[in-house]
Specification:
This protein is α+β, with helices and mostly antiparallel strands. Helix content is 43%, strand content 18%. The protein is globular.
Length: 288
C-alpha cells in the first residue's frame, strides 16, 4: 500500500469534479491532495483514518476533507477476498477552494463558509438531520445536468455544512502533516503492518523494524505523528475490529475478546469502554 499525492485532475474549465465509486474495496492507500473532498459512503464498512484519528465508517457517512489532510478508507478484510461479492460504493466530490475565484471569500457574509473551509482541514464528519439533508443534496448534485445548476447545488451543500450544529472534527489540532514522501511511506508501512497483524499483538521491536528505525527513535516518531503511543494505537485497531464483530453477532463477546488479540476479558472490557465510552454489551444492544 503506497501513499501518494493523489492527482484528481480537475479540468481547468470545470468548477469541480464528481466521481462515483463502485469497487470491491475503497482506494486502499494513505493519500492527500490539494483539492477539497466530500465523500458520501453509500455502501461498505471498514476503518477510516483521517490525520491522527481512526474510527469505523459505515453507509451514510458524509465527510468533508480539507486541502492536504491525509486520509485512508480501509475496507474490512472480507472485501479483499477473491471470492467476495461485497461492493463498496461512494459518491465523491472534489473542488478547489477558489473554484468561484480568489475574491469570493472576501465578500461580505461569507465568513461562515470561510470557517467551514478552515475547520475541514482536520476533516469533518456530519451527523444528525443535516447529514440526511446532505445526502439528498449530494444525490441532487449528481443528477444535475447543467453547469450552473451544479454550482448552485454545491453551494447549497456547503451552506448546509456551514450551518450544521451536529458534527465531529476528526483530526486533532496538533496533528503533524507529513513533510515529505519518505515520511509518508514509512507511516504507511507501519499502518499496513499493524492492520494486517493486530490480532497477533506485534511487538514494538517488530513494528520499529518495519519502520526501519531504532526502538527509541520509533517510539518518538510514532507518538509525534499519531499523538498516541503504539499500545494505544494497537488497542484502538483491536477495538475497531471488535465493534464490527459485535455488529455481525457471529461470535459471543468472550470469543471476540480473544479473536482480537486480548488475552484478558477484564482488560478487553476496560479498553472497549475507554475507547467507545460504553461496554461491549451496551454497544451491541445499541445496534439491534
Amino acid at each position: 500500500m503506497k501513499p501518494i499525492l493523489k492527482i484528481v485532475d480537475t479540468q481547468q474549465h470545470e468548477a469541480f469534479q464528481i466521481m462515483k465509486v463502485e469497487e470491491s474495496f475503497f482506494f486502499p492507500s494513505w493519500h492527500f491532495h490539494p483539492e477539497f473532498e466530500i465523500m458520501y459512503v453509500e455502501q461498505g464498512t471498514g476503518i477510516r483514518f483521517v490525520g491522527d484519528s481512526m474510527e469505523r465508517f459505515q453507509p451514510g457517512d458524509v465527510v468533508l476533507f480539507g486541502s492536504h489532510i491525509p486520509h485512508l478508507y480501509r475496507s474490512d478484510s472480507e472485501y479483499y477476498q477473491k471470492d467476495s461479492d461485497l461492493r463498496s460504493k461512494a459518491l465523491v466530490v472534489y473542488f478547489k477552494e477558489d473554484f468561484l475565484g480568489d475574491s469570493f471569500y472576501k465578500l461580505p457574509h461569507i465568513s461562515p463558509l470561510s470557517r467551514l473551509m478552515s475547520l475541514s482541514r482536520r476533516g469533518i464528519l456530519f451527523k444528525g438531520p443535516q447529514r440526511e439533508k446532505l445526502i439528498e443534496q449530494l444525490k441532487q448534485l449528481d443528477q444535475a445536468t447543467d453547469g450552473l445548476s451544479k454550482i448552485i447545488d454545491l453551494l447549497s451543500i456547503l451552506k448546509t455544512m456551514a450551518d450544521a450544529k451536529e458534527y465531529d472534527v476528526l483530526s486533532s489540532r496538533v496533528f503533524t502533516r507529513y513533510s515529505n514522501q519518505e515520511e509518508c511511506e514509512r507511516i504507511n508501512r507501519v499502518y499496513q503492518f499493524i492492520i494486517d497483524n493486530y490480532a497477533d499483538n506485534p511487538t514494538l521491536e517488530q513494528v520499529s523494524t518495519v519502520a526501519c528505525m531504532s526502538l527509541t527513535a520509533f517510539c518518538r516518531y510514532f507518538k509525534s505523528h499519531t499523538n498516541k503511543t503504539y499500545t494505544q494505537f494497537l488497542n484502538e485497531i483491536k477495538i475497531g475490529n471488535a465493534c464490527k464483530m459485535l455488529i455481525d453477532r457471529k461470535m459471543n463477546i468472550s470469543q471476540i475478546c480473544f479473536e482480537t488479540g486480548f488475552n484478558n476479558f477484564t482488560h478487553f472490557n476496560s479498553q472497549f469502554k475507554r475507547i467507545t465510552g460504553i461496554t461491549p454489551k451496551q454497544y451491541q444492544h445499541a445496534r439491534l
